[in-house]
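The freezer alarm interrupted the setup, so I double-checked each line after restarting. Inputs confirmed:
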Amino acid sequence: MALLDQDVKYLKFKTYLPCYCPHCKKTFNVEKRDVKYLNFTGVYEGADVDVKISPYLNVFEQESSIPLKEGDLFEDLKCPSCNKSLVNPDIVCGDCGSPVGEVILSAYSRLIPFFSCLKVGCEWHGLTRADERHIKIKIPRQEMPEQDQKLRIQTYQEVPYGYTTELASLEAGRCLQCKNPKCVEGCPVNVDIPGFIKCIREDDFDGAAKVVKEKNVLPAICGRVCPQENQCEEKCILGIKTKPVAIGNLERFVADWERKMDLVKIPIIKTKLNKRIAVVGSGPSGLTVAADMLQYGYSVTMYEAFHEAGGVLVYGIPEFRLPKSIVNFEINYLRELGLRFEMNHVIGKILTIDELLEHFDAVFIGVGAGLPKFMNIPGEALGNVFSANEYLTRMNLMKAYLFPEYDTPKPRGTKVAVIGGGNVAMDCARTAIRTGASDVTIVYRRSRQELPARHEEVRHAEEEGIKFRLLTNPVQYLGTDGNMVKGIECIKMKLGEPDASGRRSPVPIEGSNIVLPVDLVVVAIGNGSNPIIFQTTPNLNRNKWGNIEVNQQTNETSIPYVYAGGDIVTGSATVIEAMGAGRIAANAMHKKLSAKTKKTTNSN
Amino acid sequence: MKEFVNTNDILDFAIGNEQDAVDFYLTLASEASSEGMRKAFEEIAGEEIKHKARLVEIKERGIFNMPVEKVADLKIGDYLVSDPVHAGMSYQQALIVAMKREKAAFKLYSALAEKAPNADLKSIFMALAVEESKHKLRFELEYDEHVLSEN
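Predicted 3D structure, all chains:
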């Protein structure tokens, strides 16, 4: 064994872990409960020797097949699993010019369920394993790295980069693994959340993806666009004292990891049933029904009004929030599973529900809420007053953001106002700023507290320079001689006295009218149900708002063997809620069709 | 403007107005494009029937001390454009029409209160105006919750 000197190469360690204390920024002391040492094969004087290295950074322990002490040198270190070299020989010491091996101990990422800090005075200093539970709460919620605020408005690329494996491990380490997990109750499709997080903690990302996919066929999408803060994360016990586990971010991580590693496998469907299902609409509820029914063994045909499948996922949600490649990947998965698509089919016009029932054993309607609401104020018919639906459909589905590569002109404005405070409004405003608008303003009737958009979306919008005019309500649009919008007359609002339920409705302040100069307006106050399907199916019961009425237990409509779910039943809701409705319908459909088959068989 | 000699004249007028409203909503119900809409209009007609019944009871019992309460006015209907009433109109359109009808009734009773020849008649007109503003508030709240859900 040689001592360190300048004519031989030496080893240094590097870790991809966040190797600093998030509180005081000093290097961590890393421990693991069960494993005290890393086992390596070290090459010393041409011969392999077993060596154990303490997971403490930069410390050699004297436990090996030969005596070791700090500063001892190895010619090489090999991975104990695959026996490949862990040394990068291309690096030279900046001080002495000696060849330097740089070992990337990614193994560290498997060793960090527990931290303490070396710096005296830090609140994490001197903590022991007994403090583990305490410490877990103190590990801050890991935020996803994001694109630079100023640079990202010049592109349509996705804003958050997603977790690295290390960040995912760190975040998964915060989960308390509750025996009675409330988070699962908060998930509309009851994903085994502690189960998949446990897999992440054990570095079994493939296993984690499988656990998620048992209940959720669109995890990469849900991980991006579902409001977890009002669902699973709202129920997280950790959230009582600090921030809840970032379940959505972890879900996204495992789905992305599985996709990037090319580990998505198409399951072999063993049973083939001689029954056919029609799914109308290719949004989240329809895709869930299709996936479930295909796996039961049914033949499934999906009818989509547009030329591209995905529903609101492709026409509504912008690229920077949900890349189309991810939606396409999920849809291709279903295509390979056997799903047949019929694009450009407006059911209610080209085919009626009754006609579908002549050819299919059951029909699922998941056409979403595609009818934009307007305020019915004067001037809404002026040029450059768009509904959010039209604006986003042009930009996303028709790919105006890729003009001139795609031949859809961008609805362009330099001073843009977006009416409304939901996620769709944020999407419109953030899209507008990316088209080059110099001034984009959200006009919202209530106060910040009532903004229905996700906190994250509001933050992103503000970071990107979107202005917010709160407690402000448009009363009319003003036009030029050429009937193009040139301004919005608004009235300031105040929150009125609480009613019996404690809610404070906004009321106008008389005489507070102002005019905002604009050249483009996007109305994003919500969507209703599209009436087309009902024009040829009047016996399909619906409520006064035009939403289909269903049996809550089965999601079957007033027409036998016709089911419905998603926004067309509930009004605008979340992706995962639509998927939950699709699952209920698929289960009920399968049960009813199976019972029918049995009855037919028996009577024969 | 119609001349009112006594409180019974006022109440007959108000009862007639409520009956007009009942007829209006029942017509909409008969022309509704869906079962859900038909039920909704029938429910509103049912509420108008209750309003009428209350006025009839007041007239028959001779109880004229109707309280004048302060009712919130969200003024939602004030800024909206009302489409002409037509068969198969949407529920949103129907709510706008309803808000404007109730507002018009409120304004009528308020104007009558202004011109009332004595304090008794004035207080009855004011109380009727309050009743109408309550009806309007009911429609405004529904509009606020469902149509302006993201605004």
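Quick read of the result. The mean pLDDT of chain B is 85.
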